[in-house]
Write a structure and sequence with these properties.
This protein has one domain: Jelly Rolls (Sandwich), CATH 2.60.120.10. Helices cover about 40% and strands about 25% of the residues. α2 crosses α4, α3 packs antiparallel against α4 and α6 packs across α7. By secondary structure, the chain is of the alpha+beta class. The chain contains seven helices and eleven strands. Strands 2-3-10-5-8-11 form a six-stranded antiparallel beta sheet. It has a five-stranded antiparallel beta sheet with strand order 1-4-9-6-7. β2 and β3 form a beta hairpin.
Length: about 230
């Protein structure tokens, strides 16, 4: 586990809680400004640490994980976990834990907020919550999109680069903003209505398309705007 932690840039202390051989799986989805990791452990763990420096990191445990402890609170699979507290994070998970972590650069998340027309200070919602719950349909939709991309990348042994990665990152950021800011994100008036409408149309198009994310030029053509917009 120490070798894995170093490879993905995390400062982690993992302690296995139950006896038996460990079987762990980790798959990485890499795009500029975003690292997505799919994890699965057959054993329970007590973990303490810090997420990668320079990133905003969030976790999406699978619903089948049931309830577990996260930063002193009881959470459930299907919630969204906050890895960004100043004190770091601490979790106690049961055997069979699985889910995703998403690590975004600060620069990209603020750029995405402007592009989507929402509050550029949306990240303030991370300061007081160890987890977010209650929006299970939106969380399931985001997890489903991550799963589709992860399976597609595994089948072609590819990576999310260039304009294809750009479109995917914006879509994932939009889903995340909705989850952590809730109604405040949905009600935020856009300062750039044409751009915001185009981005949201593009996101809906991506969600309806089962292929790997389209490139930016292709998306712009589909929604009827120029690339600069």
């Amino acid at each position: 586990m120490g070798e894995y932690s170093a490879r993905v840039g995390w400062d982690l202390d993992f302690r296995q809680l139950d006896a038996g051989k460990l079987r762990a799986q980790a798959g990485v989805m890499v795009s500029s400004d975003l690292i997505g990791i799919r994890v699965r452990f057959n054993r329970g763990f007590h973990q303490i640490g810090q997420s990668p420096s320079g990133f905003w990191t969030f976790g999406l445990p699978d619903p089948r994980c049931g309830d577990f402890s996260w930063c002193g609170a009881r959470v459930e699979g299907g919630d969204v976990l906050n890895f960004n507290l100043e004190s770091g994070f601490e979790g106690v998970s049961k055997a069979g834990f699985s889910g995703y972590t998403l690590s975004f650069t600060d620069r990209f998340l603020r750029h995405a907020a402007r592009l989507l027309g929402c509050d550029p200070d949306v990240l303030r919602y991370t300061s007081g919550s160890s987890a977010w719950s209650g929006r299970r349909a939106s969380t399931a939709e985001l997890r489903g999109r991550l799963g589709t991309t992860y399976r597609a990348l595994r089948s072609i042994r590819g990576h999310l680069a260039g304009s294809r990665g750009d479109a995917w990152r914006i879509e994932i950021a939009a889903g995340l903003f909705e989850l952590i800011a809730g109604e405040a994100y949905e009600a935020e008036p856009g300062r750039y209505p044409l751009r915001q409408a185009a981005v949201r149309r593009a996101i809906e198009l991506i969600r309806d398309d089962q292929r790997l994310p389209m490139g930016v030029a292709e998306l712009c053509a589909e929604v009827g705007v120029s690339s600069p917009t």
